[in-house]
Write a structure and sequence with these properties.
binds S-adenosylmethionine; Rossmann fold; 14 helices; about 400 residues; alpha/beta; SAM-dependent_MTases_sf; N5-glutamine_MTase; 11 strands; DNA_methylase_N6_adenine_CS; two-stranded antiparallel sheet; single chain; 3 domains; MTRF1L release factor glutamine methyltransferase-like isoform X3; disordered N terminus
């Protein structure tokens, strides 16, 4: 089996690393089993495949944890340093998220806040001493009251888990897949590769739609409900947020990849199951079926695959190796699915209906040009919003 990146030698699979059998010295590339986007043995095709991931690393696996008590903050710092040395993106945040996750919290800040809440301040300890209970408080007890403000050491099991999980970003696994969940607006969604990890920009897209719904209200011919179509649901983040926030919304969401079926638990928990129809349809191949299924809608929302095909190789390894490229690849000029959504909008939108799209900064002009070049589409370009990064 060829090493898919360096193609230097044949390899044999071991537990975690794939070692090249003909290496004279340790190869600078480690292979991590289970990553979805890998070259097949001896081949070069991309796409979700079982197998191993090639990771550039000259340093090998991390050192075992130090044999002494470790608090959360120290674990975070140790891993932040290692992540920085190994080129892991956002080393501090990644380390904080994982350590907090192992300790059952969302963030390190919430752990600290919890500690502060539970512990007594110095003034409280002093007044306790001065009170009638003074005699009954030993010096050891006073020390432990003070120590309540300090962080607790992690148990051996927790430390092992931190080491196990923190090792994964060294192989460029995104932290969202490491902790297997991620927050999108007020929702916590399950995250498993290669389902697309929802981005903060998309939270803004949902915010824009919600703002529109607040100001506009339901269409005149359907006062009780609003129907929408989402193209490319991924984890379901967009549709679930909209349905959760807007009780009069009913949605159809389409997804080309795999069963197009998001985690049912949040659907049930949020009580939106009966307002969401999920279909596995490729809008490029099955536009007619999409139109049949959705009927007329008040709005269409989509964060489509919009990366220019030529830009794909420039993406970070975390994205390229773990997320499904079909969620990203918008074809030449990144417009393949965007154009199809506009065509679907021509037929499916009700009067005054709208299309909300997340796109590349180059797309607003391209979309306007494309609309000018088409006839009888009945669509009018309204406006472009920049996201929080100014793009
Ligand atoms: C950028 S991801 C967005 C996912 C999700 N809406 C979000 O914002 O997190 C694009 C999604 O579109 C889906 N997709 C790509 N091509 C499609 C097609 N031709 N028809 C339907 N869905 C498609 C991908 O599988 C992926 O889930």
């Amino acid at each position: 089996m060829k090493c898919p990146t360096c193609s230097c030698v044949r390899g044999v699979q071991s537990d975690v690393l794939l070692k090249c059998s003909e290496w004279q010295r340790p190869c600078s590339r480690l292979l991590y089993p289970g990553a979805p986007n890998v070259a097949p043995p001896g081949g070069s095709a991309a796409g979700p495949l079982p197998g191993s991931l090639v990771v550039e690393s000259a340093m090998g696996p991390p050192a075992p944890p130090p044999a002494r008590p470790l608090g959360a903050d120290e674990c975070v710092s140790l891993w932040e340093q290692l992540f920085s040395e190994r080129g892991v993106s956002e080393p501090r945040l990644s380390s904080e998220y994982i350590v907090a996750h192992v300790l059952g919290a969302k963030t390190i800040q919430s752990l600290r806040a919890g500690r502060q809440e539970q512990s007594l301040t110095e003034t409280q300890i002093q007044s306790l001493r001065a009170s009638r209970q003074e005699q009954s408080l030993t010096e050891t007890q006073i020390q432990s009251l003070r120590a309540g403000r300090q962080e607790q050491s992690l148990t051996e099991t927790q430390i092992q888990r931190v080491w196990e999980l923190c090792s994964k970003p060294l192989y460029r696994m995104p932290v969202q897949y490491v902790i297997e969940e991620w927050d999108f607006r007020e929702l916590t969604l399950k995250m498993r590769p290669p389902v697309f990890i929802p981005r903060p920009e998309t939270e803004e897209l949902v915010g824009l739609v919600m703002e529109e719904l607040r100001t506009r209200g339901p269409a005149q011919d359907s006062p009780a409900s609003l129907r929408f179509l989402e193209v490319g649901c991924g984890s379901g983040a967009v549709s679930l947020s909209l349905l959760h926030h807007c009780p009069q919304c009913h949605g159809l969401h389409t997804e080309s990849i795999r069963p197009g079926r998001p985690d049912q638990a949040p659907l049930k928990r949020l009580g939106v199951l009966e307002r969401l129809q999920i279909v596995q349809l490729d809008v490029l191949l099955d536009a007619d079926s999409v139109l049949c299924q959705c009927g007329s809608v008040d709005f269409i929302v989509s964060n489509p695959p919009y990366v220019f095909a030529e830009d794909l190789p420039l993406l970070e390894p975390e994205i390229l190796w773990y997320e499904d490229q079909r969620a990203l690849d918008g074809g030449e000029g990144g417009m393949d699915v965007i154009k199809q959504i506009l065509c679907i909008g021509t037929c499916a939108l009700k009067k005054n209906g709208k299309i909300f799209l997340e796109v590349d900064p180059r797309h607003p002009l391209m979309i306007q040009e494309w609309l000018r070049s088409q006839s009888d589409h009945g669509l009018e370009y309204r406006e472009t919003h920049r996201d929080f990064t100014g793009r």
